[in-house]
Every structure is written in C-alpha cells, then in structure tokens.
Amino acid sequence: MCGIAGHYAYSSDASPVDREALLRSRDSMAARGPDGTGMWFSDDGHLGLAHRRLAIIDLTEAGAQPMHSADGRYTVTFNGEIYNYPALRVTLEKEGVIFRSHSDTEVLLHLYHRDGAAMVEKLRGMFAFALWDAHTRSLFLARDPHGIKPLYYADDSHTFRFASQVAALKAGGNVDLTPDPGGAVGFLLWGSVPEPFTLHKGIRLLPAGSTLRVTQTGTTHPKRYWHLSSLMQRAALQADAIPRGEERDYLRAQLLDSVQAHLLADVPVGAFLSAGLDSSTLVGLAREATRAPLQTLTLSFDDFQNTAHDECPMATDIARHLDVTHRCIVLASGELDRELDRFFAAMDQPTVDGINTWLVSHAAAQAGLKVALSGLGGDELLGGYATFRQVPDLMAQARHSPWSQYAPLYRRLHTRLGARFKWPANNAGIPQYGKTAEGAYHLAKGVFMPWELSAVLDRDFIAAGMQALATEDAAYQESLEHLNAFQQVACLESVRYMRNQLLRDSDWISMAHSLEIRVPLVDSVLTEAVIGLAASGRLGAGKALLPQTLSRPLPDRVLHRPKTGFVVPTWRWLRHHPELSAWKQVPLLKQSHIRDSRRWAYTLLHRVPEMRACLM
Predict the structure, then answer these.
(1) In terms of DSSP bridges, do strands 152-155 and 138-143 run parallel, antiparallel, or are they unpaired?
(2) Which of 26, 112, 200, 495 has the highest Cβ tally under 10 A?
C-alpha cells in the first residue's frame, strides 16, 4: 500500500512537467509511504511518475517504485496489493518470464506486456496503478473492481495529472478548484461525494472497476471492466450449481479462500475485533488459516465504560475463545478531542462517517500494527442491513399510497404534522420518491432529502448539481433493472455506502496512520462466488450463516447480541467544538428533530473555502 502520483504533458504544445510540482504532490502523501520514495522522468521530461512506499511485500530495494521492465519499455507506479500474484508469477515463469524481485508490482509489468488492458481481469486484490508504455507513449491507469483503492485525476487538455488523494493534486497546483455542484449536492444527499465527482470541477475520481488511457492525442473516457449488477445476474444462474444442503460448507470454503489470500504479507498481520459477527468470524477464520500469531485490537472510550456501548469485555471474551492475542485501547475524552482536530486536518474528501475508522486506526498505530484485517463488507454481501427490509417496504407503501398524484401536498402536510406525531421525517417523500429502489433507499438512508437542499444551498447551484447527478453520476451507477429486491439493495449499499464512503474513508484514514486496512469480505472473487446464493435466500436471513462457518462455534452470547454498531460521541463535538458550529446559522438545522449527520455534513462543506459562497 502506497501513495502514487504522476504528470504527463501529452499535448504537442505542452511544456515538460514541473518536477517541483510533482515532488510536492508526492511528499504531501508522506504518511501513505514512510518506508521509501521514488521518482522517475522520461528522457524528454514530458512524463513524471512518483511513489511513496509502505513496504508490505518484498521489503527489499528490489520492490521499490516506480518499477521498470528489464528492457525499459514499461514503468509502473502502483498502490495496493495483488493477492494472487504468486499464482500469476508461476504461470508467467512457465512461459519464460524472468523475475528480478519477489514483489507483486513486477507481476503487473509482465502481465501487461502479455495481455495489455485485459490484464486487469486477472488481478485479485485492491489496486490503483499507472503504467507507462514508452513504445506507444501511452499511460494506462486502472482501479480495482470494488474501488478499495482510489485514483484521482485532472486534465487541462495539455497535461494529465493523477494521485492517490485529492489533496496531493491540489498540492501540485495547476488544477481547477472551482466548486463542483454535482459533488457538493451528492455529498449533502448521501453523506459522501459520489464517484466520479469531487468537490472540484477540475478533479475526477476514476470509477471503481474501470481503466483509462492517456495518449498524445488526449485522454479517453473511463472504461468499465467490472459491473456488480451484471455479475449479480450471472451469479443468480450459477447458484443453481451448488447442491442443496451444502451452502454452509460452500460459504466456509469461499470465506477461507479469501481470508487466506488477504493474509499474504512479509510483515505481521493484525485484525480489528469488535463484538460483532463480521469481525469475530473473520478473526476466527484467520486463526484457522494461519499458524502465525494474530494480534487483535478493540477500541473503546472512557465515556462508554460499563455501558452497552463498551465492546471491550465481549471482544476480550471472543479473543480468548478464538485463542488470539488481544489488546483493548480506551481513549479518554481529551484524547478524543485532539484526534478530532487531526481527523479534519487529514480529511481528503468530506464524509459524515469515518471518525470511528480514524480512532481505531489510531489505536492500531499505537499497537504497532502495519496491516490490519477489517470485517467491512459483510452486511453488503449477505444482507445484514435493515435497508434490505426497509426498501421493499417503502416501495410497497409508495405503490399503494393514495397520495401518488398529490406528492408535494403530502410532503407539506407530513412536514407540518410530523414533529407533533413523531413521524419519520424522511417518510414525507414516500409518494414522490418511494416507487423506485433508488428513491426508497435514499429515504431510508440518505442524509438530506432533495426538498431540504434549498435550506442550505443556493438554488441555482442545486439545479446544476441535480442535473450533473442525473447525467454523469447515473452513467457510472449500476443498472438495477432485472434484479430482485435483495440484489437491488445489495447494489445500492455496495456503491452508495460501501464504495463511496466506507472504503474511501478506510483508505485515506488508514493511510494517514501508515496502516494498511485489508477487507477480505470485499473481494471480487468472493463476491462472484457468494452473491448469487445470498440473493436467492439460500444462505438464510442476513448474516445468520456467517458465524456457522467457523469450525469452533462462537458463544451464544455473541451470536444473539443485538447489533449496535461502533458508537462515537460526535454529538458532543457538534454542540461544543468551535469549528463545528456552522450549522447553527441555518434555521432548518437548528430544529430539534434534525439528525446530527445533516449538521455534520453542512459544517464540513462550510470548512471548504471554495464551497462557502454556495451555501446559504
């Protein structure tokens, strides 16, 4: 895991790249790669590739980047891990390829030489990379299927720039930072900036499961090579090949395979352990998959000790049951406040989530971990969220609503009477938005509702943002047509929430702590193998079958513990932290029934200088 950056002055009238600008981009990501640095420029100076290294596989100088092929034709700068690189290496060696390192990076060079752009379909892992072909003078960029690793870029029609973070592109300069309505409106609607947007018109995020090529004639449009919705349609048919009664053994085999792959490293691998089913099962499977010691970690707060929100006692019991080394770290109130300031300073794109990941990553760094497994992704894969029930229910209510022809009137009446009768505020939009899975999902899980935006944003800016989301954002979303209710919600959770928020937050936050977070439950091979069975209902309700895949069952008190989530006392900061009081200027946000996530979202936009003029 690393930080990558590059500049390609591809236009015939472009000047050679600014070396100092590229250096600023690279070194703004120092925390992403404290173990080494690298920079390389083409002979004519029109291309520069840079790298910050967090050494996980092949810790020697042979694994340093940017890395060149033996003949000098190809050069790559790579962020991530390729978990199936040993098997790919064996295949390539049988074909006569000679390797000069033991790194997964070198596999990319040889695989691209053999297969070109199609090579991405053979990779299992989390990755974002840029690979230069000196013969064709083209730059090839790619991102993993689920979008675990980010890759941002900017193109001014003369020079193409890319980096692992928006902040790195801004550090290099010469990018358009004009506020992007699509990014800002999308953030307020969903609590994260939807790909391919950022808050800036001049910076885009390469969509998950996509490639992009830059030549001397310009930049191509991103090309998708992996579609979750298409995969779901195929997987539903393939699920019939799994014999009835063998679901548990099949799920166990697929999970073990993914966990085994994600343990690949030349440094110790640890794991986050909460009192929940996902992380407990993951740690149990990891314990079965390796003889190496496994360090597990649980975070709690002094505010929550001796309450239901304190996960340390239960997690300690689970660790003892699974026979792993365990450590609980308890943060004091003062340390929480200090970490909040660091959290905001490191934030790359705004998010209404993430502080929990920041704090557990901070704890992992304190414990000396360099790699940690996370149970992220189980709810999206197996239907563990309440939305898998809520969305179909909302759609049914909308279909049978007598207010379908009078949706605006219903919304006004609901809004006026809702506080008195304690109706869920978002339900005001059921007749207008609840008939589609996308609309119902937004009512269930959105931050701001569309009709609320005019209270916080300029109306013209809202209109431009909604138009952008209806065109560019829609072009990169998954098609929900021909999918059943489970598949529709799984797609929306995997894209709107997991990809755009959870995975993105995990990347910039873990990297700010020089930590690599791995997510075995977010794996394209696992998804392809399991999602069909999950969608057919053959794996049971939600994640019921997940803990049953362990050879040593979890205690009943763990299996039947109510789902609570990882709670952080953000309410205290919103009300008392001086930098988080911007929401108090907005009448809507001062109403008692307004959720803190909306206040948090508004405040974060207010902190971005370019956005303030667009806010009410």
Answers:
(1) unpaired
(2) 26
Are 26 and 162 part of one and the same domain?
Answer: yes
Dihedral of CA 235/523/388/547: which sign? positive
| HSE of 446, CA atoms in CB hemisphere, 13 A | 27
Number of C-beta neighbours around residue 557 at 10 A: 11
> pLDDT tens digits, residue range 252-273?
999 999 999 999 999 999 999 9
Ranges of beta strands (E only) in 134-280 are 138-143, 152-155, 159-163, 204-205, 210-215, 218-219, 223-224, 270-272
CATH number assigned to the domain comprising residue 210: 3.60.20.10
End-of-domain residue from the set 568, 583, 604: 568
Name 79's bridge partners.
128
Query: 301 φ, ψ to 5°?
Result: -125, 150
Hey, what amino acid is at 197?
Answer: F
Whole-number Å distance between alpha carbons of 558 and 548: 12
Which SS3 state, helix, strand or coil, does residue 355 take? helix
Q: Are 10 and 520 in contact (CB under 8 A)?
A: no
Alpha-carbon 299 to chain mean position: 21
How confident is the model over 277-304, as a mean pLDDT?
89
At residue 195, what is the residue type?
E
Residues 564 and 574 grouped into a single domain: no
Q: What is the pLDDT of residues 365-415, one digit of tens each?
A: 988 999 999 999 999 999 999 999 999 999 999 999 999 888 889 988 888
The count of structural domains within the chain is: 3
Integer Cα distance of 307 and 497 in angstroms: 28
DSSP letters for 527-577: HHHHHHHHHHTTT-STTTTSGGGSSSPPPHHHHTPPP------HHHHHHH-
pLDDT digits (tens, 9 = 90+) for 548-566: 999 999 888 888 776 655 5
Say yes or no: 190 and 51 in one domain: yes
What number of H helices and E strands is found in the chain? Answer: 25, 18
Parallel, antiparallel, or unpaired: how do β-strands 74-82 and 138-143 relate? unpaired
Start-to-end Cα distance in the chain = 40
Domain holding 601, by residue range, is 569-616
Helix (H, G, I), strand (E, B) or coil at 614: helix
pTM of the complete model beyond 0.70: yes
**Span 13-59, pLDDT tens digits:** 889 999 999 999 999 999 999 999 999 999 999 999 999 999 999 88
pLDDT, tens digit (0-9, with 9 covering 90-100), for 129-145: 999 999 999 999 999 99
pLDDT digits (tens, 9 = 90+) for 478-490: 888 889 999 999 9
Q: What is the pLDDT of residue 615?
A: 87
- The answer to whether residues 580 and 171 touch, using CB atoms and an 8 Å cutoff, is no
Residue of 333, 328, 297, 324 lying closest to 313 (CA atoms):
328
Longest dimension (CA), the chain: 75
Tell me how far CA of residue 492 lies from CA of 106, 383, 444, 469, 496, in angstroms.
35, 12, 12, 15, 5
pLDDT attached to residue 341: 85
